[in-house]
Amino acid sequence: MAEDRRLDVLRAIVEDYVSTKEPVGSRALVERHALGVSPATIRNDMAALEEAGLIVQPHTSAGRVPTDKGYRLFVDRLATIKPLSTPERRAIETFMQDAVDLDDVVDRAVRLLAQLTHQVAVVQYPSLRRTALRHVELVPVSERHLLVVIITEHGRVEQRTLELADPLDLATVARLRMLLNVAATGRRLADLDAALAGVADEVEPESSALLRAVIGVIEDTLAGESEERVVVAGTANLVRGNTDVARSLSPVLEALEEQVVLLRLLTDAAEDEGVSVRIGRETRHEGLVDASLVSSGYGADTDTGGPAVARIASLGPLRMDYPGTIASVRAVARYLSRILAN
Amino acid sequence: MAEDRRLDVLRAIVEDYVSTKEPVGSRALVERHALGVSPATIRNDMAALEEAGLIVQPHTSAGRVPTDKGYRLFVDRLATIKPLSTPERRAIETFMQDAVDLDDVVDRAVRLLAQLTHQVAVVQYPSLRRTALRHVELVPVSERHLLVVIITEHGRVEQRTLELADPLDLATVARLRMLLNVAATGRRLADLDAALAGVADEVEPESSALLRAVIGVIEDTLAGESEERVVVAGTANLVRGNTDVARSLSPVLEALEEQVVLLRLLTDAAEDEGVSVRIGRETRHEGLVDASLVSSGYGADTDTGGPAVARIASLGPLRMDYPGTIASVRAVARYLSRILAN
DNA sequence: ATTGGCACTCGGTGTCCGAGAGTGCTACCC
DNA sequence: GGGTAGCACTCTCGGACACCGAGTGCCAAT
After folding, report:
1. By C-alpha distance, which of A150, A144, A216, A145 is closest to A177?
2. Which one of A100, A124, A242, B32 is most buried, by most CB atoms within 10 A?
């Protein structure tokens, strides 16, 4: 049926445009794909696709280029995700396997993803709020300064210095440390409030001010924006195959330096099921109108529909290899989930 | 004397070229600077400067542009460092003052420097080796996993998981923790070996394997390359005023993503007195032949000739405002030193 | 519904030319 | 000897112009 062929044509246009980076014309299309019809027929189909807003021509005498809407349709209905090749899987394995700590895991993951996709990779640290606590440590630093160290199940460590009105009593600190750990270890940080409230009752009045301060710091750390950490790699890939660099590159680099922006992008994407694909304006960030973001949550139970603990993403041009990028993002996310579950 | 005027001409060329980004000709020079001679005379001087390898002309009918050597002479003998303006000083003050922890300090410093210089800023975390220890924490994670957390005087925290052959005994862990802290607190990490060696004698034979393992991890952490951490900001500034982006930008972005490369640059620069300026090939990195690196050490006693604890740097085009950049780098380094000394 | 044919549009490339900028050289002056 | 004026020369840059080729839309024929 004709309608089917039109979609074939759209698919062909997207694929050719992605690989050649040139607007694709009707003749080139019939030559490179076994469509079984003449260029004239393709032209008719193209006119229809253009009418539907799926493709445009940059100028009269040029071939066609997909629109945001065209890519969207391609991703939703036309793309077939090819699984990664065995060498690629093996590369992931060997690259990730001897990471020594969480920083190392995240660092390797982000570099790996950048290399697999030849695009910019973004990896978010496991959210403090959504992971369980492993340990709370109180380190007296001076008479009136207490260092509060929080360690999560995945080995993420956050610290904050607390300034106190009264001099510290070491015995009290030791006792609080014990109480806090008994109450909090193994809990999700989000559920911590309740657990900590219980502790307050067990404590003698003279220590309760200190306890409240410590709890305050812990909650601050969870609530603050520093809660979320994001790392980026592969910015050099932005330059490759980019023509009008000055206009299109600068806003992207700016966005990448703003944690706040990155976090919003990732949070928005978390609304989508499975691997999220945000195309051009769908990113809802004006610096990224010519870019797409492919992202996925990760975390121990993500595969079985459990909640994600954070996200990873690949950012590339509108004209990116969506199937390949989706496959890479998914593979790295899964691997990351496995590691965290160890 | 004529020789003096030639240097004036060089200075004028550098200044004009930096501000206009255009090769500067003899006429423009006499118009913009009160040199008191005619263009023809300037041309003779220029010929001499070119002969000396201090300037070149991109092509016959163009003005002159400084060479690496020209910039070097300018920086060494001709530039007068202007102190920062009061508003600028105030900006530093307000921007840095309410940082909550070391990560925050470093993050703010790097952004600040990027903004002051309109270039790429690089800040290195205080070196573990060269700072004193505040605390060592041992956290039993499971029967056979022990998390070792190292906290330095500046509040830098590093952790590493230790995998053990034998099950942990909590009492032993507590004892080791105490011994380690008594022995190590307040020491420079570089001097730690000796201090830790003493501990080994005080410990009963059955714990000594564990102790050795823990000491091993600590030393590993200090020796490993993860010892050094570097953050970067302002990459978007690379694009501004850059013409042939494709060739000149990509290698720079790559260098910036390679911690190893950045560290080498900073280490090399540490050989220089005070604020180091590395121009073009002097960086000894082929991706940076068209860039210069202005850097300075920082740390509590740096001003009084004490050893630096780490470095900050600003990376920009060959054609940068050296006096301004030097002033900014120095100011931020000093402020950083003050904060760490608090 | 598909196709072949055809006129039309328009960007890209190459060439040419003139304007302008800047130089080096030479003759001249103090 | 150092500085200056004049001048011929070189080279880039930008605009004008023509041409080519790619690609289209449309129409009549199958």
Report:
1. A150
2. A124
